[in-house]
Design a protein that fits this description.
This protein has eight helices and nine strands. The chain has 200 residues and is an alpha/beta fold. The longest helix has 16 residues. It is globular, with a radius of gyration of 16 Å. It binds guanosine-5'-diphosphate and adenosine-5'-diphosphate (ADP). Its main location: cytoplasm. Its EC number is 2.7.4.8. It comes from Saccharothrix australiensis.
Length: 200
């Protein structure tokens, strides 16, 4: 597969930044939890969000949960690498931890939605964009409703956004279909860590 940069096979291998996007309910959290088990040396960005925590979500682990005022302050101070509004809440990537990890040569992963992925693409063209896709639209609907964490109006809103996100697939360098969590995580880990230099 081409690295999409036109700069030769080494260019993507040198990029240590991977952006993972995919519609709500496709299995991003599940695949990333598995990836953490498989790939301990990967830096996972922890986003800030104004969304309320779901049961089981831990502040500082799944997200930094902030109020709208704190979020605005971080934007104004230039502390976010990218940020976007999604289904009525704000989300953003703290800049400093990602820059520190990249400076140390550590593979780093951002799990963010489409508008944020586009901002990263514009700011850092060498970043690798990966879409996590469902095996089918019906699977996506089943997973999102089956999770049971959003009420029906929120589910409908997220599914409407999901159609647009899936339509943006051609903007991504790679697509990983999440039919099975373990194999999707293994494939993603290959992309995040990159192939060994001598096989390119
Ligand atoms: N742009 C941007 N999107 C984010 C960030 N963190 C999370 N998201 C995205 O926001 C969307 C909603 O996330 P969330 O409320 O956790 O719902 P979930 O994806 O259904 O689990 C998802 O598409 C996430 O990938 C971020 O820092 N920036
Ligand atoms: N490969 C899979 N097969 C079946 N169900 C899955 C798979 N991956 C995730 N799920 C389930 O789908 C629901 C949504 O997954 P989640 O990881 O919360 O998605 P996201 O973070 O993308 O919103 C959860 O109930 C999860 O257990």
């Amino acid at each position: 597969m081409s690295d999409g940069t036109g700069a030769g096979p080494g260019a993507r291998a040198r990029s240590r930044l991977t952006v993972l996007s995919g519609p709500s309910g496709v299995g991003k959290s599940s695949v990333l939890a598995e990836l953490r088990r498989q790939g301990p040396d990967v830096h996972f960005s922890v986003s800030v969000t104004t969304r309320k925590p779901r049961p089981g979500e831990v502040d500082g682990v799944h997200y930094h949960f902030v109020d709208a005022g704190e979020f605005r302050k971080m934007v104004a101070n230039g502390e976010l690498l990218e940020h976007a509004e999604f289904a009525g809440n704000c989300y953003g990537t703290p800049r400093e931890p990602v820059e520190r990890a990249l400076a140390a040569g550590r593979p780093s992963l951002l799990e963010i939605e489409l508008q944020g992925a586009r901002q990263v693409r514009a700011a850092m063209p060498e970043a690798q964009l990966v879409m996590l896709a469902p095996p089918s639209w019906d699977d996506l609907v089943r997973r999102l409703t089956g999770r049971g964490t959003e009420d029906p109006a929120v589910v409908a809103r997220r599914l409407a956004i999901a159609r647009e996100e899936l339509a943006a697939e051609p903007e991504f360098d790679e697509v990983v279909v999440n039919a099975d969590v373990r194999s999707a995580a293994a494939r993603l880990l290959d992309l995040v860590v990159g192939p060994a230099p001598d096989v390119r």
